[in-house]
Amino acid sequence: MDYNYLTAALRIEVENIRLLHSHLLAKKYKYARPGIQTTPWNTQERCMNDPFGNRIVFFESIQK
């Protein structure tokens, strides 16, 4: 059986997503430089994949 296609997704709630974003950008990772997206469900999110293809979403709720 080929397990290369088996990946996971993880959502991690953070405080101050912009600070996290600036720290990650400062690392100058060549292939992991996504921006912050605002979603219709009132969060700001930064998505990236780890070296194994797992999706990691850091998010912060937007106060209304």
Précis, in short:
The chain has one helix spanning about 15-25; strands at about 10-15, 35-40, 45-50, 55-60. The protein is α+β, with helices and mostly antiparallel strands. It has a four-stranded mixed β-sheet, with no helix packed on it.
Description of the structure:
This protein has 64 residues and is of the alpha+beta class. Helices cover 16% and strands 33% of the residues. The protein contains one helix and four strands; from the N terminus they run E-H-E-E-E. The chain has one helix at 17-26; strands at residues 9-13, 37-38, 43-49, 55-61. Strands 1-4-3-2 form a four-stranded mixed beta sheet, with no helix packed on it. Strand 2 and strand 3 (43-49) form a beta hairpin. It starts with 8 loop residues before the first strand and ends with a strand. 3% of the residues are buried. The model has no long low-confidence stretch (mean pLDDT 87).
Overall geometry = flat
Helix residue percentage: 10-25%
Low-confidence segments, given as residue ranges, are: none
Number of helices: 1
- Number of E-type strands: 4
Mean pLDDT: 87
Structural class: alpha+beta
DSSP strand content: 25-35%
Identify the strand order in the major beta sheet.
1-4-3-2
Give the quaternary arrangement of the chains.
Answer: single chain
In whole angstroms, the N-to-C terminal distance is 48 Å
SSE order:
EHEEE
Q: Main sheet, how many strands, which sense, barrel?
A: 4 strands, mixed
Rg, Å, rounded:
13 Å
